[in-house]
């Protein structure tokens, strides 16, 4: 499923440089193939804004190579933006009013950073719930990532997330809980997924409210679940969209926070992510950072050039398969007029006829 570069968004060119299949509008218009329109509500902070675009664009573009995807990035009020990030949004993102007018076949909602402990008190809470409420009435399926999963579950089912004793981050093994569900068709029964979060919605709470658990980890909890109807809302607690260096960048930010006295404890390694050699490199670096902090010296150069070749992506194939299954089912169910969610005869309360 090639992407269509229907705007001048720089992400398209970056993906072309990485070898992704991206069509020009002229080439796309010559193909007699039905297109799909996918919304991306990008709520990530400035430093991750464009990386999040690329990660989700990449997963969509790696799916079925017949359908043409138009991805429509947009955002909401209540998120602090730098002038540079706001300029990027103003130039390349669409207003939500236009999204509503034109319609979508599917919607992806990214995670976000929060300020306080209560999601409903965040400035973005009301705009987010307005987007979700519209999408649930007008879009075939909504895929929520991490913080968006926690927010939508709280909004729909009244389940508040629980603060964990320590940050859960790293790469964790997961097992399929329901091998028959179409979203996990033809994927490995055991697979890796990165996680990075301080909070969790537990499996028992999800199941009590009728959510269907599709994949979970004994160490990291539920990763993949769906709403009681089986498809209208897809929930990720992990980050299958992550690049192999995403956790490395996060570790680097945590080290900088320690050096700047924003946190008191030197950050632990992301679990199951660094091999023994990489751990030794960063253990040596930790001693240099501590000495520099205590003596007022400049922060030593982060030694990522020494370890990049030892970082592996062990989750991308499964992530692509799940996205391919999700978008394939949407293609089969959605109305050809993207202002309406389903073709005639589809039961919204059981769209997959499970």
Low-confidence stretches: none
- Supply the helix-strand structural class: alpha/beta
Rg, alpha carbons: 21 Å
What is the helical fraction, as a range of percent? 25-40%
Instruction: Assign an overall shape.
Output: globular
Largest sheet: 9 strands, mixed
Portion of residues in beta strands equals 15-25%
Order of helices and strands: EHEHEHEHHEHEHEEHEEEHHH
**Total count of helical runs of at least 4 residues:** 11
Number of separate strands? 11
Sequence of strands across the biggest β-sheet: 4-3-5-6-11-10-9-7-8
**Mean pLDDT across every amino acid position:** 94
**N- to C-terminal distance:** 26 Å
Quick take:
This protein is of the alpha/beta class and 354 residues long. The chain has helices at 10-17, 25-29, 46-61, 83-92, 96-102, 125-138, 147-157, 203-208, 246-259, 276-295, 316-333, and strands at residues 3-4, 22-23, 35-41, 68-74, 106-109, 141-145, 162-176, 190-200, 212-217, 221-226, 233-236. Helix 1 (10-17) crosses helix 3.
Name some characteristics of this structure.
354 residues, alpha/beta, two-stranded parallel ribbon, 11 helices, 11 strands, 36% helix
Describe the structure.
This protein is α/β, with parallel strands linked by helices and 354 residues long. Helix content is 36%, strand content 19%. The chain contains 11 helices and 11 strands. It has helices at 10-17, 25-29, 46-61, 83-92, 96-102, 125-138, 147-157, 203-208, 246-259, 276-295, 316-333, and strands at 3-4, 22-23, 35-41, 68-74, 106-109, 141-145, 162-176, 190-200, 212-217, 221-226, 233-236. The chain has a 9-stranded mixed beta sheet with strand order 4-3-5-6-11-10-9-7-8, sandwiched between helices. Strands 1-2 form a two-stranded parallel ribbon. It is globular. The model has no long low-confidence stretch (mean pLDDT 94).
